[in-house]
């Protein structure tokens, strides 16, 4: 999924990574749609959202 936003996904060294990592974010990028919905399609049985308040109550 993230490959859609990277021009290169493998690197020969940390220096290569630092020099050549490029994230291409489309003008109409929407994290909810482009990332969360894509995760949900691949693993529909996983939780989409976890909530915790200041009293450490979890939902």
Distance between the ends: 27 Å
Count the DSSP helices. Answer: 2
Output mean pLDDT: 90
**Structural class by secondary-structure content:** mainly alpha
Q: How many runs of DSSP E, i.e. beta strands?
A: 0
Relative helix content = 25-40%
Q: H/E element string?
A: HH
Backbone shape: elongated
Biggest sheet descriptor? none
Describe the structure.
The protein is mainly α and 59 residues long. It is elongated. It is 32% helix and 0% strand. It is built from two helices and no strands.
Keywords:
59 residues; 32% helix; mainly alpha; elongated
Give a quick rundown of the structure.
The chain is an all-alpha fold and 59 residues long. It has helices spanning 14-20, 31-42. 32% of the residues lie in helices and 0% in strands.
SSE topology:
Layout: H1 14-20, H2 31-42
């Amino acid at each position: 999924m993230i490959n859609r936003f990277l021009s290169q996904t493998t690197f020969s060294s940390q220096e290569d990574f630092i020099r050549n990592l490029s994230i291409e974010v489309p003008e109409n990028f929407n994290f909810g749609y482009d990332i969360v919905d894509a995760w949900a399609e691949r693993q529909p049985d996983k939780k989409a959202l976890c909530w915790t308040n200041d009293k450490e109550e979890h939902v």
